[in-house]
Amino acid sequence: MKPKTSLSPLKIAEYRPVMPYTLNSPANWPEMDPGIWSRMPAEILEHILSFLPLKTFLNLRSTCKHFRSLVFSPSFIAKHSSSSPSTPSSFSFLLLAHPQFMHRFFLYDCNLGTWRSLALTISLLVPRDVTAAHLPCCTLLSSSNGLLCFSLPSSSSFLVCNSLAKSSRVIATPCYPFSFESLTFVSTPCGYKIFVLCCMSTSISAFVYDSKIHSWQRFDGFGPNLSDSHHQEGVYFKGLLYFTTPEPISVVSFDLESGRLGRANTDLPGEITFARLVTDGESKLYLIGGIGRNGISRAMKLWELGDRGNWMEIQTVPEMMCKKFMSVCYYNYERMYCFWHQGMICLCCYTWPEILYYKVSRRTWHWLPRCSSLPEKWSCGFRFFSFVPELYALV
């Protein structure tokens, strides 16, 4: 009888037999017959490509014209959207623009939590089909759901582009010459709309561009209170566009379909000195404002709109953060604006290169660090944008 022996896992692995190469080995696979694969129906090929990860498919766009054209194919976009897992976008940036840095944009990478060392140039954002003659005076106005909206004063038009898909559309203004007080860019899965307020000869009018019909519509009868808040865009919430007005402070709504302007049926908190609206794009509308007397804010609070149309207080800005923010805007609340970005409520000022933001999930306030690429001395004009590139945002 042979004695029993104990082998270590390493010794056991050494005793395993080596499997010979078979036809199942990739090295022995037969070559693909081009005569067969070239006759594959286009719908089957698109179905196979729809299962590729977005990053892999973007790398394939340069291989042939057909793959590049799929980016603009509604049928392929629908297939890829349904095949791809519903995970958050892997690209999430805060984009900083300033008049001193014409056609250069600084990017804060929210995934890495740091500023990118290289600035983003306008040539990388705007597709090549936009002529170079437009670029010298091209100004970024707004961003929404992966789309960017620029003004092209030299041609009296707007430019809407998808920087990831490299697609664009030049939209002529409704009249010439055309000067506007404020612009709101609203993008949805079904298209986008551009809302602009213009001071005409004797009144203020609104123009709305609808991407579905590619035309403008004019609405009259607006008061001067809306044009006074030109630094802050309107907030699109449940089919209506909401604005806050300066003294007397109120919330008004505008129906983009019917053009009906009305006052929101909600009472603002008492002793409020300024108000800004922001939405998560789905089900919640927030109000951030100052509390004080005689036009001077002593505190800043955050409210959420309740089901009954009442504002429920949910947070107070920490005292030291509030004092710093009030000091950098010199109590000039017209310079303040806010927007939503990936679970954050960002509060900004045109005179300051930092963002005070509220992390909704953690219920905490933070300062976004200043971009190190900026010079020590700067002037007014800082404009931040939420920039989340989206391949399927159609122009």
From TrEMBL:
Ranges for domain F-box: 34-80
The family database entries (Gene3D superfamilies) matched by this protein are listed as: 1.20.1280.50, Kelch-type beta propeller (2.120.10.80)
Tell me any Pfam family this protein matches: F-box
Q: Organism's domain of life? A: Eukaryota
SUPFAM superfamilies from the UniProt entry: F-box domain (SSF81383), Kelch motif (SSF117281)
What this protein is called in its record is: F-box domain-containing protein
